[in-house]
Request: fold
Amino acid sequence: MARRRGNRNRLTPRDEAADQEQVRALLARLAEVLRDIDHPRAAEVAALRESFATDPAAAWRALDGNAWWAGAGSLAAEALLPAERLPARLTPAERAAAPQALRALLIELAELLRARGPTNPGLSSWLLAFRNWEASGV
Reply:
């Protein structure tokens, strides 16, 4: 009798249009958070959002790239911004909320990328750290 292989290793088929709609919404919110704190990468995030309309495959690759997830200098590392680096015009509450909002959006983006398949090696470490910080209220 032939052995049947389970479907354990197969990814669930993705709805590409839904994924693109979700990622574009997340990137819009992320660009807004970055603009609110005068972050220089806000325009880059907004441009990536727009690139999903013209070249989604390249946009997905860029989103999963080292510029987003590979250690110091990555956008994920920007979630470690100390309050003193945020604009003085922000209230203390806004200064505390900005990194948390940044991390929450990066968690959602990381989870979407993971659901789509293999990801950047740095993504898992950042996702774990962000979840732990979120759970502990950091």
